[in-house]
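Illustration 12: ABC-2 family transporter protein.
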Amino acid sequence: MRTLKTQFLLIINNRLLKMQAIGMLLCLPMLILFLFSSLEHQSIQYAEDVARQSEYAQEDIEWMKTTYDASLQEKHAREFQLDSMVVQKAEYFAKGQYVSYLQEAVNSWKLFFSLQKVRGYNITESQFPALHYGTNMAFDDVKRATLNINFARQRVAIFEGMLASTKEVTINELVGITARGQFYRWLGHAGPEVLYLPLFFLLTLLFSSPIFLDDKQHESLLEVKPISHLKYLLDKIISYWLLISGFEIFLLAIILFAISSRFGAGDWTLGILTFVGQEEVQISSMEFYGKAVLFFLLINFFLITCLASCNKIFSNKPLTVCLSGLVLFLEPLLRFLQINFLGQDLLPSYYISFGPVLHGVKDYFFYRGDFSVEKGWIVLSLWTLVLFTMMYLSVLVRERFRQERGRIWG
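Figure caption equivalent — predicted structure in token form:
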């Protein structure tokens, strides 16, 4: 414990890390202002999309009335009904009757889902405003259509949760720009949401990049009270992990607090619809966000161990940062190049963007791979153990070589 405390003090007193932390705090107000502008734009965009939906539905009704005869109109009565419900919910939204809007939206989507099963309709951006905020990143059109349907079902489940809740339905909660809605979106499975998490973990690479490189400055401290290599390595990594994770959680808390002060905190008790294969599974928000926190901690520990092992083995900070950055962005890079291979679900890089894994839709991103929350935890843990073992063995080999060289020259 004393050694761990010493490591904490060494990290906290590191001048470079202090400057980086202060720089992040100074940049935070600009980031929050940018978020405010983005969320306000989302609200305006959502209202425009609802109005545009109504226009499309009205045009569709007029077209069917002029094109279909009486028998065809009767045959397509459910399409008439669906378009009429879309027009009606837009009127509710314009009048600020958000509970009525939610009820009509849920009923219209349930009707659409039943028509989709019978007639094979595909969901499009014009039919669902939320899809305008990002293009789903499935590997092919079939999987993209399935992702869109799953995305719509999740949104409908949230609407049903709002209707069942005793809390007042606000426009910000409806659009999803509250603190809860924004945090949920950061863990989403539509693009560019899947890139938010790798970008966030750049902070981990930034703050942990000097790990073990400054050991020579503290050799005198280590010689005063020698400790085992294993304990030293563990204490160093754990201290960086605790401090960096705590600082990142602190930054995230400030951002969410700022959003909640402007747009509201939102209802954090809403259940979340996830998928296990083709099966729908409703879980509590506590379980969903609890799994997200565990993923966050495991990924941070993995990335810090990755940096530590590279620094110990190569003793070259630029090379270490490049290799760790490649690990961080390997999945987006390979997906951009459309490279698929067996065993990609066994690589930790494919779990850094863990939002789709939490939702149970990661499999749709690829032709090969079987992704799950539990598998992600195991993969991250095993790779962390492998990297730590390599680092520990390299330290033992170097120490043995140093002793042999000292004995020869002695």
